[in-house]
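RESIDUES AND SHAPES:
===
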Amino acid sequence: MKYVFVSGGVISGLGKGIVTASTALLLKDRGLKVTPVKIDMYLNVDAGTLRPQEHGETFVLKSGLETDQDMGNYERFLGEDLPPENYITTGQIYQEVIRKERAFEYEGNTVEAIPHVTSEIARRITQAGVKNNADVVVIELGGTVGEYQNGIFFEAARIMKLKNPESVLNIHVTYLPLIKSVGELKSKPAQTSVHILNSMGIQPDLIVARSEVPVDSKRADKLALFCNISPEDLILDPDSESIFDVPLSLEDQSFVEKICFKLNLKPKNKNMIMPAWEKMVEKAKKKEKEIVIGMAVKYFKSGDYDLSDSYVSVVEAIKHASNELGVKVKIKWIDTERLAVSGEGLENINGIIVPQGWGSRGVEGKIKAVQFARENKIPYLGLCFGMQMAVIEFARNICHLKNANSEEVDPKTKYPVIHIMPDQKKYLEKHQYGGTIRLGSWQAKINKNSNLYKIYGANTVSERHRHRYEFNNKYRKILEKAGLKISATSLDGKLVEAIELSDHPFFIGTQYHPELQSRPLTPHPIFIEFLKACSVQTNR
């Protein structure tokens, strides 16, 4: 088994995850069995309790493990479902080391960071490879080089290389900033980043140079010289129009051939995936018609900045569908806290999405967005919390259940059309928040007389979940009698999985997250049909 470590330097947000995903995709294209692993340096055991505005979206695996958003990039690029072994955190590592110490599995030896913690890291990485029967494991080291928190993972990578130098390769993703007042790219930050890596005992085999504009040969040669690599081992990765362009850019520079040569890997084939990928990218560049989608959200503001990482899977699912349909999509971010007060933000849009969310903040703005979509026949897609908001809006304004709400938002509401499941109450009483909600893939039974059935063309589907509150069946008859259609339930019929309105161009809410299973080469059908409906709106 071979191991490729991908580290980053200078700044966060460089795109290590995309480089990792692209590396895995290109290796898979050569017929190799490859699996990507993400290492987060946080002490959290999983990503379930991390703040979206700080860490970005929580991506849920089929198994139900809550992970970093980069796991979503890996699954989307590879077109594969990944197991929980592919996500590692500092919390997991220390939890297991302490468990072993308490169980006397170290046989009385003094437990130390080296070798016990580093050995546990190496064991987890190898375990992921074995689980996936991999020829190559591509490991993304979270954070940037030189951080206090992730140093132990770099040390584990160094030891793995020391013990088996022919089987470990290091790729370092770094950044050359463009100083506009000077008018040129500067390579010194990238040099410093590599020097810090060197001080940790690691010499990168390949360097991926990220930059806002293409790096000229003068600076490329200088960077290679001062980072102690051959010029051909410097891979240039300037900003591109789309993340889908990155694998093609790396392919043009013989990136995978260099990896295979250095690791003595024998590719088994070629062009297993990339022709379809190239066709998808080419099609995406020929879009003409443009539609505007209003995304009614609250996890968007971070200080003075607007961030979209909290909803990356939804954004990507929109891109996948838009590429397939050849339609440009402009996302209009609507702050639901402002919307609740001013009522502004819903103008000039062709469709509305209310995605996932938690808690009471911004809820009234989301309900306003639902009402606007329903009354004005604007295509609406509610995802998880968005489905719940649609149920609340319908209960209030069509069924006249005044101030109907979710128990999550108002525990004392007279009409809890969305409520907490009995087993979930026990968890909350014990303050057991992490990993206790309804998670992972669950099967749903589709109503044959629904628009959702026309979209799927199947009696049952399997979709991923992440929620603690559910549709309250006590109000099911009232809502259905007024025109709300239950378009999907759990297999036993006890849990509502999706709702819709029949007298509307497109109005669907899902308790599950279809965006988590959308892929560039296989867009999710719900997003395809939603964008089709939005496209019709431009002709009105």
About this structure: The chain has a mean pLDDT of 91. The two ends are 58 Å apart (CA to CA). The domain at 2-280 is CATH 3.40.50.300 (Rossmann fold).
